[in-house]
Amino acid sequence: MPAALTELPTRSQVMARMDSARSGDGPNDLGVLLVVNLDRFSLVNEGLGHDAGDRFLLYAAQQINGATRDNDIVARLGADEFLILCEGVGARSGRIIAERIVTAFQKSVTLGGHELRITVSVGITTVNRDMTPLDAVRQALSATQRAKTNGRNQAAHFDSTGSIQAMHWHDLERALSVALERDQFVLHFQPISCIRDGSLHGVEARVRWNRPDHGLIPPDVFIPVAEESGFIHELGVWVLNEALRQLSSWKASRSVPPGFYVSVNLSPAQITDSSLVATIKGAVAAHGITPAELTLEMTETALIADEALMVATVDALAAAGISLSIDDFGTGYSSLARLRHLPAKQLKVDRSFVAGLTTDKRDAALVAAVIGLAHEFGMTCVAEGVETAEQFDHLRRLGCDFAQGYLLGRPMPAAALEETWDLATAS
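Above: the chain's sequence. Below: its structure in token form.
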């Protein structure tokens, strides 16, 4: 039984309690049901082992009990989910309890020598006499999925839209499970150019899902689903090998200049995978490229389950000669603290700052600060989302090293990108 570890009541006990309340006397509204899901809990089990996962589950149960009322029933719902029945309260009070639970998980905790910060997504639904206990649980689960879809680390109420979103999520998950074996993924490449002379410096590889009857689906739609399902590991290996295969082909045909590199994005789940370093080293060797010709991008906005493990992984990659780039810099939390300990060679200025570069003094100051910080740390700086000549010129004056954006080229298939190179050579 899932409750054995935490010694909490089971789902069936909570549902029996709701069933009993339905048959008694009293108001139509019986209370509020919450489902608490541990965000990216798989990172703990996969990166640190199930013993660490069990320790965190016990800690999570304590945090939830501390954030709820004495008469609330807290139960274990599944591997990474808890169920809470709050009797005699309305939606507003249920929201207050849910937000207390979210707040309880904001600080990191050290368990077994590992510093962990796992946030939670909480689903809220009002329970009444017309609902079966199973319907109430389904609605709370749907609301939890809505909270995760909205960005995690928050609470959300059930509504019909949330139910539709949950169905869409599960549809994506089912279709993703066979997409790789059916060869439905493609890579597009976006140029990264030197601001000083406009020369081509490298490309960023971006995966697209060519789903039958749906067309090309961008990564922000399916990557969160891949992360939650664990499929991101298999997909990440495919992206890495396909990007390196294409780079090897360009090098063999002398289509790219010396020092040209390909940049590949890493998910937080991949970073905590103990086999990642060996996988990347093997791919680099298999495709006959040098480690310096591969750059790995990770976002500082991603919440890493164990920062010490993440640092050890990127240290090992840096020791192998592979470059690390911090993407979307300035949009996450504890940026400078993390930057001190990472052997990064590149910072990428988030496109949201570049968009206001020529119109907003604060954005301009932020971009200048990031460029200066990168250079002080001995790194290069890439500005993302460059769409106008005015932005490009401003970046040149600020001393930014490289630029990426629609002004210089959209993400496109390798063959289409090669045609732009031919046109540039012809002109």
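The domain at 182-426 is CATH 3.20.20.450 (TIM Barrel).
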